[in-house]
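Q: My labmate handed me this sequence with no annotations at all. I'd like to see what the chain might look like in three dimensions before we decide whether it's worth expressing. Could you predict it?
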Amino acid sequence: MTGSDDSVDFALAAYREEGVWTVEELTHDHLGDVDSLATALRRFPGDGGALGLVAVDEDFFLIVRVAGAHTRVLLSDVSAAQAYELAGSALDFLGLPIDDEDDDDQVPAGDLELLADLGMAAMDLGVLLDDDELYPDEMLSDVATQLGFGELFDDLVGLTSA
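A: Here is what I predict for the chain of 162 residues:
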């Protein structure tokens, strides 16, 4: 398994206070596993908790949402757990085994409802995850846009043109 900082495309925290979204970069030392990421997210003061949005190696993404002691997780592709420690820790957190079978299908795991109260229904998230033409950064950009901080997200990850 790899866990090097080089494989992380970006890691962001997003939180909303009084209806206004803030998006900040997370340091790579918080990305070893879901628990470390959740601990880092708890320091942000969001009204409904904070979101961690992590894209790795243009291969998969992880969304972690913390609110108080409660942590919710969505991994975009369970097969990533074979190669990446962060994805493996997401499956561990979810209580799911790492599947050693080589499967080309992208299968998500976790809580599709974790963004519903923020404006993205589980069905919409499921449809997005089924689009195998999109890269993880594009999927997360769509999520950010649905939730209301798309421009901030795109600026930070470099998806906006100059």
